[in-house]
Amino acid sequence: MDAGATKKSYLPGNYREFEIDLNGEIVQLSKESENYSFIFHYSGDSADIAQLVCRYANDYREETGIIVYTDKGERIMSWMCK
Q1: Which sign does the torsion angle of CA 53, 72, 24, 22 carry?
Q2: What's the pLDDT score for residue 16?
Q3: In this predicted structure, what is the pLDDT of residue 47?
Q4: Cα–Cα distance, 77 to 33 (Å, whole number)
Q5: Residues near 47 by Cβ (< 8 Å), separated by ≥ 6?
Q6: Residue whose C-alpha is closest to residue 26's, from 15, 65, 70
Q7: Lateral strand order in the sheet of 19-20
Q8: Which segments of 1-82 does DSSP mark as H helices, in order?
Q9: Model confidence pLDDT, tens digit, residues 38-75
Q10: How far is it, in rounded angstroms, from Cα 38 to Cα 7?
């Protein structure tokens, strides 16, 4: 959301990496309380998302790990940031 992503309703179903319930909400697949999944619509450049992930990675490297999957098949991982 810091980069301009917005919440959007998605059709219910299994999208391989996540599931959407009948209310259009993402289903938390992990049973671990520290892991959360989010889904947003972002129409900007994915390089902006990569920069944002790396900023969080640099600020919170010990506290968090982030993976972003895009609809273009990209995968942005916080532990890959320099």
Answers
A1: negative
A2: 75
A3: 92
A4: 20
A5: none
A6: 15
A7: 13-14, 19-20, 26-27
A8: 46-60
A9: 788 888 999 999 999 999 898 888 888 888 888 888 99
A10: 9
